[in-house]
Amino acid sequence: MNPNPRQLKLLALVQAHGSVTVEFLADALGVTLQTVRRDIQRMADEGLLTRFHGGVRVPSSTTENIAHPQRESLNVEGKRRIAKAIALAVPNDCSLILNIGTTTEAIARALLQHTGLRVITNNLNVAIILSANPQCEVIVVGGVVRGRDQGIVGEAAVDFISQFKVDIAIIGISGIESDGTLRDYDYREVKVSQVVISHAREVWLAADGSKFNRPAMVEVGTLSQIDRLFTDGRPPEPFPALLAEAQIRLDVALA
């Protein structure tokens, strides 16, 4: 599914509120109840939303992430703005680690004009994107390839990354809980993300607005381990205070 502008706005409203009624969405979008119900049905069929009697909410499983093709269609514009902001901040002639996720894939596309980069990644999609840049050396992590999203996980990946110390780790995340915990779904992926964080001089987190207050099962770390957060809108409460306490530089990529 490739959501149209109305459907993308509907998704954004649901993500911002967690759950909403059909009537609320119809009023907010200025369309009929029938139009909203059709949009909800299409997106529920794709796994982007979960229906309940009289309303809709974001999928809230703590054990399984949304499928990769569905995540690619979520908040494309927000991810593009985040990627552009990160690309502007990344200097030429530096070393990076990019981990698994559709946001890091957007960042890889935004880095195609950089020169002198050395990029380590456990994301085959990132490797394929950046291999089109002749001025970028791409190092692919060894390990088990996850077929659903071409991520590389497992102990071999952990051991491989442990050899390096890069200038910047640019990581995506599945969820940031209200206590500042960074969370993801696959413990094997989390083990890799933890070693990525510990083997970088700076850690930059790329997270669109849907990641705030989103639950997931496995703890990756905490906001205190992050140096910069790039997002596409002002974080909701209580995150501004948490970011200030952790002395994280906040970069909001506005339209």
Describe the structure in your own words.
- This protein has helices spanning 5-17, 22-29, 33-45, 68-73, 76-89, 102-110, 124-130, 155-161, 187-198, 239-245, and strands at 19-21, 50-52, 55-57, 95-98, 117-121, 136-140, 144-146, 151-153, 166-171, 175-176, 181-184, 200-206, 218-222, 228-231, 249-252.
- The protein is built from 10 helices and 15 strands.
- β7 (144-146) and β8 (151-153) form a beta hairpin.
- α2 (22-29) crosses α3 (33-45) and α8 (155-161) runs parallel beside α9 (187-198).
- It has 2 domains: 5-60, Arc Repressor Mutant, subunit A (Orthogonal Bundle), CATH 1.10.10; 70-252, Rossmann fold, CATH 3.40.50.
- It is globular, with a radius of gyration of 18 Å.
- It has 255 residues and is an alpha/beta fold.
- A 7-stranded parallel sheet has the order 6-5-4-9-12-14-15, sandwiched between helices. Strands 1-3-2 form a 3-stranded antiparallel sheet. A 3-stranded antiparallel sheet has the order 10-11-13.
